[in-house]
Design goal:
single chain, 212 residues, Arc Repressor Mutant, subunit A, 2 domains, six-stranded parallel β-sheet, 10 helices, 6 strands, 14% strand, elongated
Length: 212
């Protein structure tokens, strides 16, 4: 049986997927948590093989949590479990270290099969997500390489998203649990890559290249 944990803040989704996992004889559900901090406290204590992870949690960005889990429990295979099918979020999750990406409108059997597949060494993407990524790649790869987009890190995408939302450097730093200087260093590097100087220009560049 695969020792599995779930982190999902919405009670109905958490209860539904937990019930489905408990009914599957291949899965040993050892915990279901509403917050990232609750998960991190528990995952260090258990030999967890698989994690079903919601990207949108109240206390930590999903990609930050993926990176933290990879640090404290490197043997754990991570499958993102979310409603979002946006290519930028899929790319950020995979770049952070996720091994699979499923969406909440899939059948529970498909989600469980994804957990089984990643624990066998595979990478699984929901069909809807795979189609969106393929369409984006076919339409935009050449332009992206020229603008250095392939060099962006998951943390860069998080910062860009919050910049476009109008957050200050201090607000971004607080949300991502880093220093203001770290945010400023990231933005300086991204500005150099994009060839822009002003904050509004950087926000427009991010939007034009479908990064947010």
């Amino acid at each position: 049986m695969i020792r599995t944990m779930v982190v999902e803040d919405f009670p109905i989704f958490r209860a539904a997927i937990s019930r489905a996992l408990q009914l599957d004889q291949r899965i040993d559900l050892v915990g279901a948590y509403p917050t990232a901090r609750g998960l991190l406290d528990a995952i260090v204590m258990d030999q967890v093989q698989a994690l079903l992870l919601d990207l949108h949690l109240p206390d930590m960005e999903g990609t930050t949590l993926i990176e933290r889990v990879r640090q404290v429990s490197p043997q754990t295979r991570i499958v993102v479990f979310t409603a979002s099918e946006q290519p930028r979020q899929v790319r950020a999750a995979l770049a952070a270290g996720a091994h699979g990406y499923v969406v909440k409108r899939q059948e529970s059997e498909q989600i469980i099969d994804a957990l089984i597949a990643v624990c066998a060494g595979g990478t699984v993407l929901a069909p809807q997500v795979a189609a969106s990524l393929l369409s984006l790649r076919m339409g935009g790869t050449a332009g992206e390489v020229g603008n250095g987009i392939d060099e962006l890190r998951p943390s860069d995408l998080q910062i860009l998203s919050r910049l476009v939302d109008g957050e200050t450097d201090a607000q971004i730093a607080g949300a991502l649990y880093v220093s203001t200087r770290t945010v400023q260093n990231h933005l300086a590097r991204i500005r150099s890559m994009a060839g822009v100087v002003r904050r509004p220009e950087l926000a427009r560049w991010a939007i034009e290249h479908a990064l947010v």
